[in-house]
Amino acid sequence: MPTHADISAFLATEFPQNKCTVEAVGNASATVRHPVGFAELRPGGTVSGPVMMAVVDVALYVAILGEIGIVPLTVTTSLNINFLRKPSAERAIIGVCKLLKLGKSLAVGEVSLYSEGIAEPVAHAVGTYSIPRDSARASGTGVLIGVAA
After folding, report:
1. Angle at Cα 125 formed by Cα 123 and Cα 131, nearest 5°?
2. Who has greater pLDDT, 51 or 146?
């Protein structure tokens, strides 16, 4: 499976416009960090919703690629986010993803977003990704993450 460095290099090459950095990846999870500056703020001095949704999307993508390998055409099919509280305009957004199910063609995960250094989440999201058929893993079966068989 790809390393932290492999995934970081892939994102830097294929998504140079992406401001997220990979902090950790592995064990069906990922943590990403997005710096917050003036460009990420909306009126009212808070981090914009599209920035937070982008962090969710990147965290899910990284966690999935960490499990299946670099499969560029793994794409978002569904994303639902709940904004819980106002994030700090002076702190990076941290996205912590945990995959809930990794199947042959779909992956489902949840992401909690935090203002860096603050314990309470600012948002919670659940997303589904489609995995291209030509990248099917040898086992041929889906895996429920964290569920005893």
Report:
1. 150
2. 51
